[in-house]
Design brief:
The protein is mostly helical and 307 residues long. It has one domain (15-302). Helices cover 76% and strands 0% of the residues. It has helices at residues 2-29, 31-39, 51-60, 63-76, 88-110, 113-120, 123-134, 141-159, 169-192, 198-220, 229-254, 259-265, 268-280, 287-302.
Length: 307
C-alpha cells in the first residue's frame, strides 16, 4: 500500500505545483497591458503615473492581501513548519525583484511590448547558466533540449512582432536586464522557500520591494498618485492579478519544483500575451506564431522533472 501511495502523492504534488506555475505565468503575462494603461500617455494626455510609480503600486496595493494570506497559511501549517522571518534569501529576493520591476516597467515604455516580452523571456537562459556554471549543479540533457525548444518557440511566437530600431535600443537593453533580474529571482526565491512558506516569502519580499520602489518613485518622478480612475483601476488589477496572483503562485510552485524547470514554464507568458491579444484586441495569430507556441509547450514537456 505504501509503495504505491508515495509515488501517487509525489505525482499529485507535482501536478498541483505545475498548475500553480502555469496560472502564475498567465497572470504575469497580462501585466504589460496594465502597465500601458497605468503609465503610458493616451491620446496626447500626460501619463497617469510614471513607470517607477506604477511598479510601486503594483507591489504595494496587494500587501494587505498577502499579509492575510501569510497569517492564514501559518495558522494552518504544522507547528514545526519552517517560518524564518526575513531570511537572507528572502531579503535578496526582495532586492532582486526590485531591480526586475524597475527595468521591466522601463522596457515596456521605451520599446514595443513584443520586444520587451521577447528579451524578458531570456530569463530561463540566465537561470540555467547560473545553476550550471556558477552554482555547479547538474543540469539534465532534457533541460537543455527543452530550453532550446522554448527559445526557438519564443522567437517564432514574438519574433514577427519585434521591431529593430535604434530608438528602441535602450528599451531592448532594459528588457535584457529584466531577464537577468528575473532569472536571479527564481534562484533566490527557491532558496527562500526552504525556510519559509510561500505566503511569507511573497509578503516579505514584496514589503522590501515596495519600500525601495517608493523611494525611487519619490526621487525620480513628479507624479506618484494616479490621476484618473482608469489609471487607478489598472494599478489595482496589475497588483492583485499580476503580482499577488502571479508572484504568489510562483512562490507556491518554487516550494516543490526546481527553479530551472519553473523558469521554462514562464515562457507561457508569451503564449498568454499572444492569446490575450487575439481574444481581446483581435490581433491575428499566424501559423508561425502558433507553431512557436507549440514548440514552447513541447519544450516544457521535454524538460519536465521526474515526479
Amino acid at each position: 500500500m505504501s509503495s504505491t501511495s508515495t509515488p501517487a502523492r509525489a505525482e499529485t504534488g507535482f501536478a498541483s505545483a505545475f498548475a500553480a506555475l502555469c496560472l502564475g505565468a498567465v497572470a504575469m503575462g497580462i501585466s504589460p497591458i496594465f502597465v500601458r494603461f497605468a503609465s503610458a500617455s493616451m491620446g496626447g494626455a500626460p501619463a497617469d503615473v510614471g513607470p517607477f510609480a506604477s511598479a510601486f503600486w503594483r507591489v504595494f496595493l496587494c500587501l494587505p492581501l498577502l499579509y492575510a494570506w501569510m497569517r492564514i497559511e501559518e495558522r494552518k501549517a504544522p507547528a514545526d513548519a519552517p517560518r524564518v522571518p526575513f531570511s537572507k534569501a528572502t531579503v535578496l529576493a526582495g532586492l532582486v525583484f526590485t531591480g526586475d520591476l524597475l527595468v521591466w516597467h522601463l522596457a515596456i515604455l521605451k520599446t514595443t511590448v513584443a520586444n520587451a516580452t521577447f528579451f524578458a523571456t531570456m530569463a530561463p537562459l540566465v537561470v540555467v547558466l547560473v545553476v550550471w556554471l556558477v552554482l555547479r549543479q547538474k543540469v539534465s540533457r532534457g533541460t537543455f533540449i527543452g530550453l532550446a525548444l522554448c527559445l526557438l518557440g519564443g522567437t517564432a511566437l514574438i519574433g514577427e512582432s519585434m521591431q529593430a530600431h535604434p530608438a528602441r535600443l535602450t528599451g531592448d537593453l532594459y528588457g535584457l536586464a529584466t531577464a537577468v533580474f528575473f532569472g536571479l529571482y527564481f534562484i533566490v526565491a527557491s532558496r527562500a522557500r526552504k525556510t519559509a512558506g510561500a505566503a511569507r516569502v511573497t509578503f516579505e519580499a514584496s514589503l522590501i520591494t515596495s519600500a525601495l520602489l517608493l523611494l525611487v518613485a519619490l526621487i525620480f518622478e513628479s507624479r506618484v498618485m494616479p490621476q484618473t480612475w482608469q489609471g487607478a483601476a489598472a494599478l489595482f488589477a496589475m497588483s492583485y492579478v499580476s503580482h499577488a496572483g502571479g508572484q504568489g503562485l510562483l512562490s507556491i510552485a518554487l516550494g516543490s519544483l526546481p527553479p530551472v524547470f519553473s523558469s521554462l514554464v514562464i515562457f507561457l507568458e508569451a503564449i498568454a500575451a499572444a492569446v490575450f491579444g487575439w481574444i481581446i484586441l483581435g490581433e491575428p495569430l499566424t501559423l508561425i506564431q502558433s507553431l512557436g507556441g507549440a514548440l514552447i509547450l513541447l519544450g516544457i514537456w521535454v524538460a519536465r522533472p521526474e515526479p
